[in-house]
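To assess whether ligand presence alters the predicted conformation, the chain was also submitted together with NAP. Input:
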Amino acid sequence: MGQTPDMMRAVIAEGSGGPEVLKVVQRPVPRPGDGEILVRVKVAGINRPDVIQRQGGYPPPPGAPDILGLEIAGEVVAAGPGAGRFSVGQAIMALVPGGGYAEYAVAHEGNALPVPPGLSLEEAGAIPETYFTVWTNVFDRGRLQAGETFLVHGGTSGIGTTAIQLAKAFGATVIATAGTQEKCDACLRLGADVAVNYRSQDFVAATKDATGGRGADLILDMVGGDYIPRNYDAAAQDGRIVQIAFLQSPKVEVDFRRLMVKRLTHTGSTLRPRSPAEKAVIARALEDRVWPLLAEGRCRPVMDSTFAFEDVVKAHARMDGGEHIGKIVLTL
Ligand SMILES: NC(=O)c1ccc[n+]([C@@H]2O[C@H](COP(=O)([O-])OP(=O)(O)OC[C@H]3O[C@@H](n4cnc5c(N)ncnc54)[C@H](OP(=O)(O)O)[C@@H]3O)[C@@H](O)[C@H]2O)c1
């Protein structure tokens, strides 16, 4: 593989705990297997699931490296057997099951995408995890349609900022919740029709107010806990609720009569354990439906901050602090 070294710098969590458990260590450069490409990583996106993994709550699925990191942007340096879509030197971004916080990473070529024109590599490295997650949960599973009302919790999270923009681009009315006025203002700037500060307003009442009493057709929730019964209240008749995390709690007492009477659908999913083939289906849908929007500037990752690779501890501390709006990335 030409000039590729044998060893590289990579970030692992030594034990579990706060950002300080993250260590930059030496690891062998991975070799691309069947259908895989080797990428010289220039940008590694940081996601909340990395924080949960660091805290010991989200171990890598079988076969995934213990090196952190679920999304990368960089340059293709080699292709494994049967991988032929991208040429050496091409700039790509990719969803990876782990291994992103490193100088080199392997990606399944079906889970990689070209960088749309006009986008920087930093922006590209901030895209895969949230775009794949939003597409599969909001549009596939949640079946959001133009003209419907979409309620997204955590409106300024990486996921939330992506969900607001894509839902607006596809013609939905968007209600977003966030924990400060500054974050609510950011949601409105991104295109949300209504932003609800959940610390000072009841999101159920605000959703009802905004929809003439109907409620939201689709709710994307990462909070859980007491949001579960409240989402049932905020949902419209025949509404859908898609659960992607439980930042508050996965356990709660719920009166399910509301689900039955309103004919609600409550579902959820996780992205990381899915097979490369399943993720490739999402990648193709994104390339067809969303990449033209990125190229036209109709959606764009919201960049909170960029940290040097060596400052990964500071980058995780920024996410732990919870003041960020949009995406945090590492550059190499
Ligand atoms: N299922 C999947 O496939 C999948 C994939 C990717 C991510 N996720 C999940 O999606 C969530 C967002 O990920 P991300 O990377 O976008 O994270 P992020 O940028 O760190 O956002 C987390 C957001 O949650 C809100 N929040 C934090 N703790 C909360 C609490 N206890 N109650 C209410 N809100 C809280 C914060 O907003 P406020 O300050 O406004 O409260 C923040 O905007 C994470 O939970 C992550 O695990 C799931």
